[in-house]
UniProtKB/TrEMBL annotation:
Family per similarity comment: Belongs to the peptidase S1C family.
Lineage: superkingdom: Bacteria
Record protein name field: Peptidase S1
Pfam family, one: Trypsin_2
Keyword Secreted appears in the UniProt entry: no
């Protein structure tokens, strides 16, 4: 009897423990929060709209491509003043080496008795003609003095039609001016004074005028992709008619003594 009594007590204890565990599980299940409600079409539309709004706000805060390009090139831009037998001509140029070497258009300094380059920091220096290639309308200038900080421009690569470009120079004496456009065509050939042809040019529609020649043509990162050489001038008034031309930087750099790119 003692053994049966002990077994009965043990069984009752096991049952009691089991009941307690079961009760605890019931309480846990009852207290557990319900799962998330299923997404509705309204929820999806709201989330998408929030994403679109956030992206638009981020784009609005970002600087424009033209601002980025101008900031990148501004320390490297120079004003070129050439005194010739017929007077004083001005154009633009760009520092392309840590030595201070300036790349410009040959016609800006053609026949000059004296050449002066003025830097972005307000200082200036006499300069002499380095290397040139008239057939490509490019030349390098070697300044006697350099600015306190020399910032060479970064040279860019190949372009495609439709790519955004920016021309920076000193049109009509308006120094450090930027105009924006796109590449209109590549590999153009144009007639220039002196019964000559310039070949393999970039055609673009960013506005250029006298004083723009020799300045850099930039991509959206501010890399130099060409050297402005002139404009289409059907009226012979030396005013922009919607078409400008630049020597590709691969041609300009090689013709002026740099490595072919």
């Amino acid at each position: 009897m003692g053994g049966l009594l002990a077994l009965s007590r043990r069984a009752r204890l096991v049952v009691a423990v089991a009941l307690l565990v079961l009760a605890g599980l019931v309480l846990v299940v009852a207290a557990r929060p319900e799962g998330p409600a299923p997404l509705t079409a309204h929820d999806v539309d709201t989330a998408v709209q929030r994403g679109i709004t956030a992206q638009a706000e981020a784009q609005a805060r970002a600087p424009a491509d033209a601002s980025i390009a101008y900031s990148a090139i501004q320390p490297s831009l120079v004003l070129v003043t050439a005194v010739t037998a017929t007077g004083k001509d001005t154009g633009a140029g760009v520092i392309v080496a840590s030595s201070g070497l300036v790349l410009t258009a040959f016609h800006v300094i053609d026949g000059a008795s004296t050449i002066t380059v003025s830097y972005a920091d307000g200082t200036s220096s006499p300069a002499r003609l380095g290397r040139s290639q008239r057939d490509h309308d490019v030349a390098t200038l070697v300044p006697e003095r350099l600015p306190e900080i020399v910032v060479p421009a970064v040279l860019g690569g190949a372009l495609t039609v439709g790519a955004p470009v920016f021309a920076v120079g000193h049109p009509l004496g308006l120094t450090d001016s930027l105009t924006a456009g796109v590449v209109s065509a590549l590999d153009r050939t144009v007639q220039v004074p002196g019964n000559r042809e310039l070949q393999h040019l970039i055609q673009f529609d960013a506005a250029v005028n006298p004083g723009s020649s020799g300045g850099p043509l930039l991509d959206r990162a501010g890399h130099v992709v060409g050297i402005v050489t002139g404009l289409a001038d059907p009226t012979n008034e030396s005013r922009f008619s919607g078409i400008g031309f630049a020597v590709p930087i691969a041609t300009a750099g090689a013709a002026a003594g740099g490595p072919a790119r």
